[in-house]
């Protein structure tokens, strides 16, 4: 016994079994994972280079091509969350000293700017108020002025509840010899999006929103034009883990017969991701887009009937997946979200970045996008406004 003496005792807390509570996950993410996807993640582990695994990765690639509406060969899932894909895009597309322009109408443009700064890019931003978006003319002018190699735009701004129009922006970027990078973490599957037709060069998403898979994998795709830049760099990207030269081989996108070990794939996470993409394919992307729109409109009407105000004034710019509600005056928003969690077992959240203190955010994504969920949220809000108001008087 003395031979293997330990000095840090086994922690008492680990003696308790953990059972995750069942909650309505109606915040901006993660969303509820349906039993079919959870079950897929509970399948036995196989080797990350076994033939079945390579087939799963190939299926995932096809599923992402469908969800992104692209025929790009360079389409993979990054092992990591949305932020990982964001860094993968920026780290591979930009070399130190090159120019990046980010569109900031919420937190994601700010974060993209910070990531680009960290790798020594010359970063400029165009900024508009939370709840707003940019016209194509504004983008065109900024590109003329700053001449970046990469332009970053968020399609579904989950911190403000804005869906950014995309038509024409890819062409404008190309006119300026600039790559168009779009974040669709919060919009993919819930809002029409056509990577190829809209001329998007790099597009990434996440698993835990409309796809209803667990957090931890992130779809990303590179156009031919993006590949020209990414695979003709003078310097290596700062991250080994996110180097697309390695990842392209790992995902069988580089045409080479041998796959070289790069990292151990999160096997169970890939099972779940594959299943979530299978469900999207079964249901049909168009149907998913339409359902998210109809459910959001039903929700927004319900909110306005209750006397609540929507944060995004322009109806067409309201993101169907994540709704921002003006924080009701006279109430403490934290009290509302806590009350709803405690009494309705339901998560909604406050603002993020520039919208902190200004809004409540409700995400209805994938399987959670239903009129039944809307009714539940409206009831919870009605109850909270009654209770929280009384407590203030
Ligand atoms: N972009 C957007 C638009 C998002 O909504 C999120 C997640 N809230 C992210 C990026 C980052 O994703 P993750 O939290 O998975 O890293």
From TrEMBL:
It catalyses: glyoxylate + L-alanine = glycine + pyruvate; L-serine + pyruvate = 3-hydroxypyruvate + L-alanine. Keywords: Aminotransferase, Pyridoxal phosphate, Transferase. GO terms for cellular component: peroxisome. Its EC number is 2.6.1.44, 2.6.1.51. Its cofactor is pyridoxal 5'-phosphate. It comes from the Eukaryota. The keyword Transferase applies. Residues 46-361 form the Aminotransferase class V domain. The modification N6-(pyridoxal phosphate)lysine is found at residue 209. GO terms for biological process: glycine biosynthetic process, by transamination of glyoxylate. One of its GO terms (molecular function) is alanine-glyoxylate transaminase activity. Substrate binds at residue 361. It is an enzyme of class 2 (transferase). The keyword RNA-binding does not apply. PROSITE patterns: AA_TRANSFER_CLASS_5. Homodimer. Belongs to the class-V pyridoxal-phosphate-dependent aminotransferase family. This is Alanine--glyoxylate aminotransferase.
